[in-house]
């Protein structure tokens, strides 16, 4: 008999930047979460981060009123995913890693449980190929910070069935999120447009045309960008951005997606953005 998914937790795989933010979003809407990662240290760090993000979301009036936060369970055991309402995969932006995780999960959860890959650009059909039930797979692209941004790009693969689309859009509605459903392609809509702009912004710094601060100041003041492209890149994580650009370049062959030297150098030096304390900006005082 199929599980009553309405009463079950949402499972999130990956306690990194996006997985933690997605878990915060679900918990803040009053729904329970099972958060899975391979290491206890990562889970402990995620729990502390989630507490901070929930406070931030309350301060920004971004949580539904009158709802107590959902219950968080952290685990390193994939058996805890059984019976989940939906499973959100939020591991690194590497195709083989994502496929491995999704294949394992497909063998644990019910046949009608949506498998959601939170990818910034890998085509859903590519990830679905090895799965026993490709109709279960759908993509989401939560923007960071997910607990503050209420619009979510949803990617329907060629084999994604209507029941999966309905289940995921209903789940997002329960999270007070608006869904925009798009067709599958490398990078979808947001990454195809945003990531080459971030790449070009970094290239301008590399060419000594302008400082990171001036690039962002011009984009905010003249063109209405909310934070500026390079602060956005730091928030995404420069390693994540490089991985996404490389995947787009591999699939499209378009030079605008080839990661520029400035981004590659920062990743090589471990300057990954906010999460590491340094990127285009210095965050070490805020982290101390």
From TrEMBL:
Pathway: Lipid metabolism; butanoate metabolism. Residues 10-184 form the 3-hydroxyacyl-CoA dehydrogenase NAD binding domain. Signal peptide: none annotated. Residues 187-283 form the 3-hydroxyacyl-CoA dehydrogenase C-terminal domain. Pfam families: 3HCDH, 3HCDH_N. Keywords: Oxidoreductase. PANTHER family: 3-HYDROXYACYL-COA DEHYDROGENASE FAMILY PROTEIN (PTHR48075), 3-HYDROXYBUTYRYL-COA DEHYDROGENASE (PTHR48075:SF5). Belongs to the 3-hydroxyacyl-CoA dehydrogenase family. This is 3-hydroxyacyl-CoA dehydrogenase family protein. It comes from Streptomyces lancefieldiae.
